[in-house]
Specification:
Order of helices and strands: EEEHEEHEHHHHEHEHEEHHEEEEE
Largest sheet: 6 strands, mixed
Structural class: alpha/beta
Number of strands: 15
Strand content: 25-35%
Number of helices: 10
Strand order of the largest sheet: 6-7-8-3-9-10
Number of domains: 3
Distance between the termini: 33 Å
Radius of gyration: 20 Å
CATH class of the largest domain: Alpha Beta
Shape: globular
CATH superfamily of the largest domain: P-loop containing nucleotide triphosphate hydrolases
């Protein structure tokens, strides 16, 4: 389990995280939501030790992260940043092989090759395994980066806005892949995201942040509530129910208003 205790973070005179205490649930997807500047990416950076906090501690499996050697930490956590600038002409397979570095130190053995092959097959990347990363679409690139993370074979995966610049199809495909990683590989995933409805549909738990503080955290159905989201985003939301999930409508609609989705007439119910 990941435990965050009394985390504060400042950049110069500006404090951006205020006394953060949080337990990340295992074998689940936890979404960090909030407006720009809420502190989501900073918190993710602190949890993954990319950022040194001003005070407080992060524990992974009851060990302080600052007491874990870098290479050992890389066997426990994998991080996909918001932007990935690799200035090398790499194929998909070569990129995936980078994920094995904490295990192989660049000298791939049969175990490494087996893991790379497993990942390629699992994510259906066979057709593009020899394609160059810079020639792929945004969605294909993200799948390749997720494959690299999966090849790293860590228990914990941290993703900073991986849905940016993806259209709806690829965003849903990405989140479905993450769901499968939790189910098939017992991964624990923490993801920074902006789309509330994607978070509602795919996340098991949500941490809602505002101005560097946690406003609410818990099961998704408990956080996707009008009172919480109105506060987090300073917006007047309408929360509707459809297909057993909560959906955020960004303007008020009348109770029981009928709409049509894919030819099916649906009556919305405000929650």
């Amino acid at each position: 389990m990941i435990k965050i205790r009394n985390i504060n973070q400042s950049y110069g005179q500006k404090q951006v995280l205020f006394d953060i205490n949080l337990d990340i649930k295992e074998n689940a997807i936890t979404g960090l939501i909030g407006a720009n500047g809420a502190g989501k990416s900073t918190l993710l950076g602190v949890i993954s030790r990319l950022i040194q906090p001003s005070s407080g501690s992060v524990y992974i499996d009851d060990i302080k992260t600052n007491e874990i050697k870098s290479n050992e930490l890389a066997k426990k956590i994998a991080v996909l940043r918001q932007t990935n600038n690799i200035n090398l002409k790499l194929t998909v397979e070569e990129l995936i092989s980078f994920g094995r570095f904490p295990h192989s130190k660049g000298r791939l053995n049969q175990e490494d090759y087996d893991k790379i092959e497993e990942v390629i097959n699992y994510l259906n990347l066979e057709e593009i395994r020899n394609s160059y990363i810079d020639e792929l679409s945004g969605g294909q690139q993200q799948r390749a980066y997720i494959a690299m993370i999966l090849a790293q074979d860590t228990k914990y995966i941290f993703l900073d806005e991986p849905l940016n610049n993806l259209d709806m199809r690829y965003a849903v495909e990405m989140m479905t892949t993450l769901e499968n990683l939790v189910k098939d590989y017992d991964k624990t995933i923490v993801i920074v995201m902006h789309d509330i409805n994607i978070a509602s549909a795919f996340c098991d738990n949500i941490v809602a942040m505002k101005d560097g503080k946690i406003i609410g955290e818990g099961k998704t159905e408990d956080i996707i509530e009008k009172e919480i989201l109105d506060n987090v985003f300073d917006h007047n939301f309408c929360i509707a129910g459809i297909g057993g999930k909560k959906v955020c409508v960004f303007h008020n609609i009348l109770e029981n208003k009928k709409i049509t989705i894919n030819g099916e007439e649906i009556r919305w119910k405000n929650i």
